[in-house]
Amino acid sequence: MRVAAGVILAGAMSLSMSGAAWSQTPPAKPVAATQGAATAPQAIPAAAPASQPPQPARAACTNPNALGVGRTVEIDTSGGPGFGFEHFKDLDFLRDHEVVLTFDDGPWLGTTPAVLKALADECTTGIFFTIGKHATYYPEILKQVYAAGHTVGTHTWSHANLNNKKLSEDQRKEEIEKGISAVKWALGGNSPAPFFRFPALQHPPEVVTYLGNRNVGIFSCDLDSFDFKARNAKQVIDTTFKKLNKLGKGIILMHDFHKQTAEAVPELLRRLKEEGYKVVAMRAKAPVQSLAKYDEELSKDLKLPTVSQRPVSSVVTTVSE
Question: Percent of the chain having pLDDT more than 90?
């Protein structure tokens, strides 16, 4: 499966699943089964309004032995380019011993802050593919991701498998667009990058076409850490490096949603440095522009009086004992 390519790598080149089980959050509400093939939107803008302030820069590094960032690339997502050899073969831009760190399914209490700390300690960065619902649960955590200079992408509204034939065209579109609107809301009106990862890495062709017309880049991966199956941090690290040392480079898929991943990241980063790997930061040429219809729908949803479905750990905190 291929998507229309339109990548400009900034700087010198202008370089200048996910299979995770989503078991700790309230399930999405059932959807009605309807039929109909997805049709591509017409003339939907890709870039956010120019009035959006620039994202905060990464903090200056005070650790002389840190992993750091080897280089930063800028991505023009016109036409919906695809990244990650698991599904997309055309855009082989990583050099030997370069990696891109990606984290799915956040933000999440406890685990996402731990991942952020590990990245900060090593002065390095990643892409966070955010579930819209989770963004509404923990907007303050997602703001920390953004403020630290990491790239924030999207991962649907509810982690629904968009390859599910029971989902109508409108329901698939809503999963994508409401997810974008939710992340924008959680970021205080700052739009995320036009970077999208399909849940379970399931890429229905008609939705790939939709994202291409929407000028949203699609991310698969080069290697999956299978951290969602791991029993502990060691297993996450062992699986990742077994694959990485075979490939020599790659976009690594992990989940800031899982405890074992949060525990694994500090050692994983240390080993990347020790074994001579360099992290590549991927930045979008322009943010994605959310659609007003879904911004309004989300705003109405958030204002409705409801019984909270957030986990108890995010509602009740022991302050003294």
Answer: 74
